[in-house]
Design brief:
It contains 13 helices and 24 strands. The protein is an alpha/beta fold and 495 residues long. An eight-stranded mixed beta sheet has the order 1-2-4-3-5-9-7-8, with helices on both faces. Strands 15-12-11-16 form a four-stranded mixed beta sheet, with no helix packed on it.
Amino acid sequence: MQIKFSPFFFLFLIMFSVYSQEKEITSKLYETYEAYKEPSLDKRRIKYHEIQPLITEYRKNPKFTVKTVGTSIEGRDLNLISIGKGEISVFLWSQMHGNEPTATLAIFDILNFLDSDDFKAEKKEILDNTTLHFLPMLNPDGAEVYQRRNRLGIDINRDALRLQSPEGSTLKRMRDSLEADFGFNLHDQSTYYNAERTEKPATISYLAPAYNYEKEVNEVRSNAMKVIAFMNDIIQKYAPGQVGKYNDDFEPRAFGDNIQKWGTSAILIESGGYPNDIEKQEIRKLNYVSILSAIYTIANGSYTDISLEDYDKIPENDRKLFDLKIENATYNLLDTDYILDIGINQLEVDKQGNTDFWYSSRILDLGDLSTYYGYETLNANGYTLKDGKVYPEVFGSLQNLEAFDFSTALKQGYTYIRVKEIAPEQLESPYPVNIISEKYEVPQFNLEVGINPTFILERDTKTVYAVINGFLIEMDKAGKSINSYFQGKNGMIYR
């Protein structure tokens, strides 16, 4: 008996085969990432001079074409790195905002991948069907001082109409000259965004920007939505529930909205927060995997079969995360006990040269924070919040504290230590206490929004937790190894 199959059956088999191949390449990209990670870029606060040797090497490499396509206000070159011979033009630019570098790191990882001899079949399909154009670090002047805006003081992403910035003019000219079919607009967002109504950070957020106030969906925008739905499916494997979607209200000055309007399928990618990933190296990896996988689906055209409903299912971005949330703490004010939640953020302060930072934390909110979440959350039910005390002994220098028993001091309620000599260049305390000068008077403690969060939490008159400059220390876990427990954090210095 001869079995007949409908054409739809064979179409299903083809689609299933392509889908399986894409899943396989995604897994392989993730597993082999370290082989392509650019080792010279291992921190977030990268500068123009750090990427120039890499661009110079690609300029010498016959696989790539490198062109200087513009300059920043301060005269730094803007370079376009291209590879491939396909008809589909894909344009990727990063760091339009100078303090949003994660995707710049990922771009150089992707370039290393494209330059390698691995993944031959997949790369052939990509480079035969697409031409890829990368413009890393669009705002090098902003990157130099680790700030959002350019040297003129404007937000380049709100300069799509006037084109007053040379960086914005370059971006517009490149989009037009490349006649880009797809545009990847690569950013960082605040680490305090979460996926709507969940405690999970929005590690990656997406948007297919609207091109008019009516938020209509044409073929150009729908293609962007489909690729985003594909990328979301990838991220869910490695950061489940940690994807958000930006509000798509039309912003007539923004590049993403206008690039969509000009006929390029614009895909906004925002790198947010990931637990214990201060330098965003895990998010960098997720960028690498998801962008390369997206390029692969663009090259083989499989994204066209994805439903727009998959894009709509991505939860909205929300902004209800704290670095530390303390719930149900008892706080006595004027002889009356109150139950409060406390929202604390560990804020970064750049050091001179903008290559490193220290923390100066603040209380961001107080009261009923039951609709908010924390990267770290402590239920302090039954614990009483008390102000910390100044240790009675005065030390000569910070070096004199190297052998100090911080664990015992904190258990006794001491959160401040006096030091006679504090070097002017010393900005932060390297120890799990705040350092104060010999004459500094610690102000009376009043729990309120805006203050530095330094206090202890007692239960049955015993100190169980200390909060130093917004960092939670659990006394029993820290023990005598409290210095290593506190590593990577800092206390404050008050002179």
